[in-house]
Design a protein that fits this description.
Length: 85
């Protein structure tokens, strides 16, 4: 759990889920040891890159409608899913 902004260039890595109570502007890597049930939650999505259990997405591959919004990310099979909270 992070109770502040994660700035551009910063990185948060966790074996399980990641909760960002602020802006996510850097990188977030959840499920670093292969936990495919891990999730990423943030209050303001601007992440350069997110990853869950080795499945990555970069900001350019995220719909513009999610930029700056509260978002959750999870794995559905081999696909990294994102939706507005």
């Amino acid at each position: 759990m992070v109770c502040a902004a994660v700035g551009s260039g910063a990185e948060v890595v966790a074996d399980g889920s990641i909760h960002i109570y602020g802006r996510l502007g850097g990188r977030a890597l959840a499920g670093a040891r292969g936990d495919s049930g891990a999730r990423i939650y943030c209050q303001e999505f601007q992440a350069e890159l997110i990853s869950i259990a080795g499945h990555y997405r970069v900001l350019e591959d995220v719909p513009a409608a999610l930029h700056g919004k509260p978002v959750q990310a999870w794995l559905e099979g081999e696909r990294l899913m994102l939706e507005k909270l």
